[in-house]
Amino acid sequence: MNDIESPVKSSATMSAANDKSEPQISEFLTSSQAAKRLGLSMATIQKLVDNNVLQAWKTFGGHRRISLASVLAYQTTNTTSQQASAPSNRPYQISMVIESPELIKRLSKESAQWQLPLKISFFESLTEALLELLNQKHDLLIMQMTTPRKQQEKILEILQKFMGSRHTLAHTLIVTPETDLLPTSKVGEHSGGIQVVNNDLSPLWLSAYLAGFVAQRRS
């Protein structure tokens, strides 16, 4: 699946053919985008391309385009090596997509008092979250959805495909008013690393959920 939109056809965007809410990711990056994503210099990117570690081609105008798949493969390999040497008590990386700016402020303030080993990043759109998830592996994505049912189904499909094709996200929690968003599984059950919960995203409920998430990961 294509998931991101950028100035050169390589970034995430929330648009489908008839629905601007569906993000897509391009298959190629410019050299500067690859360098930024991997945290490397342009010279190092050039060496990786010359050594066929990163797969690239040139446009008719002479501009280099680097395969996003090869960038993600390189990133995954190096991230795995770094995590193997990282302490087991590292903070869990949490991404949260919250539709209300006011709720983001409230959760950001209250989460600082939870005393849980978490590093939480807040986003107002799924596009921003997916861009971040391409840059760094996260343990959990929490997404609040109150949009119409059909739009939620499209977003769910995007997340399922993203998790099936990328290795930067371990688990997804969707909080929605819908009670049967996943018709093949019961509410609260896992489906391909995705859990759907019919609940309000209150700070009290969220802190309890995250405390259980941490306990389960450490058991």
Q: Do you know the CATH topology of the largest domain?
A: Rossmann fold
The CATH architecture term of the largest domain is 3-Layer(aba) Sandwich
Number of helices: 7
- Tally of DSSP β-strands: 11
* Low-confidence runs: 1-25, 80-87, 183-191
CATH homologous superfamily title of the largest domain? Response regulator
What general outline do the C-alpha atoms trace? elongated
Helix percentage range: 40-55%
Model description:
By secondary structure, this protein is an alpha/beta fold. The protein has 2 domains: 13-84, Multidrug-efflux Transporter Regulator, Chain: A, Domain 2, CATH 1.10.1660.10; 87-218, Response regulator (Rossmann fold, 3-Layer(aba) Sandwich). Helices cover 41% and strands 18% of the residues. It has helices at residues 31-38, 42-50, 68-85, 101-111, 126-135, 149-165, 203-218, and strands spanning 13-14, 23-24, 28-29, 56-58, 64-67, 92-97, 118-123, 140-144, 172-175, 190-191, 194-197. The strands form 3 sheets. The protein has a 6-stranded mixed β-sheet with strand order 7-6-8-9-11-10. Strands 3-5-4 form a 3-stranded antiparallel β-sheet. Helix 1 (31-38) crosses helix 2 (42-50). The radius of gyration is 19 Å and the shape is elongated.
